[in-house]
Structures are given as C-alpha cells and as structure tokens.
Specification:
CATH architecture of the largest domain: 3-Layer(aba) Sandwich
Structural class: alpha/beta
Strand order of the largest sheet: 3-2-1-4-5-10-11
Distance between the termini: 65 Å
Helix content: 40-55%
Strand content: 5-15%
Number of strands: 11
Order of helices and strands: EHEEHHHEHEHEHEHEHHHEHHEEHHH
CATH topology of the largest domain: Rossmann fold
Oligomer: single chain
Length: 410
C-alpha cells in the first residue's frame, strides 16, 4: 500500500492555512505519498466515519493562494476518555499513514503530541509535525519571527482602518475600533500605527497599572480633548480586545453591559462586541463632562481571519509547508516548523517554548519599551500632557485625570 500522510487544521482560521496545506500536499505528492485531508480538526480522529478528502495536485494547486481553509476547522479538544474509547486507530493503520501534519495554535500542537504518544503506546509509531499559526502574533517564536497569518490580517485590518479614518476625517466624526488579540496587542497596535490613529490602547500599556474601564475611557477622551486643542475635530480610537479580557469580574459587572453567562457563571465575553461596549462607555463619559462628540463602533476580527493571504504570507507559508517535508525526511517528530531570519528551516520543540512551571506556552507580548513602539506613542498619538492642563480646563475640570502618563503610572 502507498504510504500516506494526514493533514488537519485546528482552532480558528488565519490567512495562509490553504497555502500551508497546499504546499505540504504538493511536496509529498511529488515524493509518491498519498495525501489525506481530515475535516473537522481533531474530531476526525475520534469518530468511526471521519470526513476526509484525498488531496491531489489539482486540489492543492486550486487552494494554495486562497483565504480560509479548504479543510474544515474545529476547536475540538479530545479528553482522556476520547483516547481510551473513541480513537480511530484504523484510520492510520488501514491507510498506512506515516505522518500527521497539524496546522494551528499552541493547543493544536499540544494535542498533536498527545496523539503521537498514544499511537506509540499502541505500537504504531507515527511522526507528527506542527505548523504554528495565529493572527494574534503572540506565539513566542525566536528572534521576533511573526506567526503566519499575522501580516495578512494586519493588511486586511489596515484596509478597514484606513477607510474608517477617512470617514472620520470626511464627516468630522470619531470612531471606536476594536481589533482581535486576546492576550497581546500586536494586531491592534499594528493596524492603529499603520493608520496613524491618535490613540491606541493595548494591554501591554498597563505594565505598571491595573486595567480598568475608567482608565480605558479616559485615554480615549484624552485623545479627543487633545485634538480639540489642536483644532482637529475628528479621529479614531483603536482598542485591543485584550484589555477587555483582562478586566476583573468586578469591572465587567460595573460596566453595566448585559452579558450571558456560561455554566461556570462567567460572562461569555466572546459574544459581546468590544467596540460597541467601549463606544457606549465612552459616550456615557462624554455626556457626563458635556462634550458633544458621538462615537461609532467598528469591529475588526472575523473580517480578516479568512482574508486572502498577501505575498508575504504566500511565500512564508509555502516555505513552512515545504519545511514539513524537510523535517520529516530528517526524522524529526513532535516539533514545529520554524524558519529563521536567514531562511533556514529548523525544528522547534514545544519544551523550548513552554513555561517550566506551568507547561503552558506564554504569549509573546508587544515590547512596549522598544524604540519603535515608544516613537509611535510619543510622536503619533495625541493625549493630554502637563503643558495642556490649563487649556484643557475649558473641557474638563481635572485634566490631569486624562494625562496618559498619570493614567498608566509611567
């Protein structure tokens, strides 16, 4: 029987998923392997009738430059009971599968290791190689190497962000924009900086201060007042969704926003539009201080996950896909594909990224102290400083409460 490889995609989509899968398929097909695409992520391994697609050259060639994922994705995470009672070993033995390729985030990689160990225990050793993705750019790859999908998502987000800013300038309005990024502010900062937004708010800015709704709102209002002092009556505020997820339960309850709650009693944050929430909170503050400014909310998230990959990711993801074969041919397993700054393909093992205490992969945060970030904060953003206090009293009685440095305790 011809040797085969199986490919699955897990988590949420990112531009370049099809490029990776198509490139992996092309190189293995050229080496004489059968390529089996698994739909519905890891759930395909725990059902007796998995949905599969044989990927030939025609399909690989048709998908590689498209957004989205031809292989249907899933966030399914198997339990120990799933492994004990429902693992479909026949999928591997009857198809002579020698390699499982997984494309996803750190959770997908961790589950891939569990699958490989289980198969070894079942006396069916199989290689597993992972290709890391996330538009959040928060996997700690060496030398600040981006995760695939980030550059394309930033490009798509900037296209939306530019139009929003032009609308603000044209109609003399303000917009409140929220961008994806649960743990880190890379995407929000990248889009906001590219579009010259006068205020960008990301969780990393609160490195010396606890995140509260009042501080977020005051930073936004600070930019609005500063622009009034400059004679500019329009603008846009970029807020990373990460600040929302780092709010305490007390802060969330205090917001007055109505939430649905999960079975553990936690608010279901993913169902709430962050831009709408913050826009409403900012509106309340503006009315309280008597500023006649009306904000409009815009969300950037799902709109960019399935965007068509730009040339950067098309080339990068192709190299990652071809790198899977190089690592496999070199007998590497239980690793991720990593391409360094010189273009060399190397294995990257989870143990080298994991926190030794928790076993979890810590997110890569925006280096808020870097020169480029500080230059953007100090020279592109608009906010009240001590020099503005006297003039700002025309709009607020306590201008120091809107001073970015005082708010953040910098």
């Amino acid at each position: 029987m011809k040797e085969a490889i199986a490919i699955l995609t897990g988590g949420g989509p990112a531009p370049g998923m099809n490029t990776v899968v198509g490139s992996v398929a092309k190189v293995f097909l050229s080496k004489g392997y059968r390529v089996i695409g698994l739909h519905q992520g890891y759930s395909s391994l725990f059902t007796p009738t998995p949905e599969t697609t044989d990927i030939d050259f025609g399909l690989a060639d048709a998908m590689f430059n498209r957004g989205g994922s031809t292989l249907i994705m899933s966030r399914y995470k198997p339990t120990d009971e799933d492994f004990q009672k429902r693992f479909n070993l026949k999928l591997f033995t009857e198809n002579n599968v020698k390699l499982l390729v997984t494309v996803g985030g750190d959770d997908t990689a961790s589950t891939a290791n569990r699958v490989a160990k289980f198969l070894q225990d079942q006396k069916y050793p199989i290689a597993n190689i992972h290709v890391p993705k996330t538009i959040d750019n928060d996997l700690p790859l060496p030398d600040n190497t981006p995760t695939f999908g980030y550059e394309s998502a930033k490009q798509g987000g900037a296209a939306i962000g530019r139009v929003v800013y032009e609308d603000a300038r044209t109609s003399r309005n303000w917009f409140v924009v929220a961008a994806m990024g649960r743990s880190a502010g890379h995407l929000a900062f990248g889009i906001g900086a590219a579009c010259h937004y006068p205020m960008i708010i990301i969780p990393e800015m609160f490195n010396k201060s606890t995140i509260t709704i009042e501080k977020i709102v005051n930073l936004a209002v600070s930019s609005m007042i500063k622009r009034k002092l400059l004679g500019i009556d329009y603008g846009a505020i970029m807020i990373s969704e990460g600040v929302f997820h780092k709010l305490s339960d007390e802060e969330i309850e205090k917001s007055g926003i109505q939430f649905t709650y999960d079975s553990h009693g936690h608010p279901e944050l993913g169902k709430v539009s962050k831009s709408t929430m913050f826009n409403e909170l900012i509106d309340v503050k503006l009315k309280k201080i008597g500023l006649n400014i009306k904000g409009r909310p815009v969300e950037i998230g799902y709109e960019v996950r399935c965007d068509t990959p730009i040339a950067y990711d098309l080339q990068y993801c192709t190299s990652l896909g071809l790198g899977v074969y190089k690592l496999f041919a070199s007998n590497h397993t239980g690793c991720m594909v990593y391409i360094d700054a010189k273009g060399n393909i190397n294995p990257l093992f989870l143990k080298d990224l994991q926190d030794p205490q928790t076993g979890k992969i810590p997110p890569r945060l925006v280096d808020i102290q870097s020169e480029s970030i500080q230059a953007t904060l100090l020279n592109m953003m608009h906010f009240i400083t001590p020099d503005d206090y006297e003039a700002a009293k025309k709009y607020v009685s306590d201008p120091e409460a809107y001073d970015l440095y005082k708010i953040l305790k910098w």
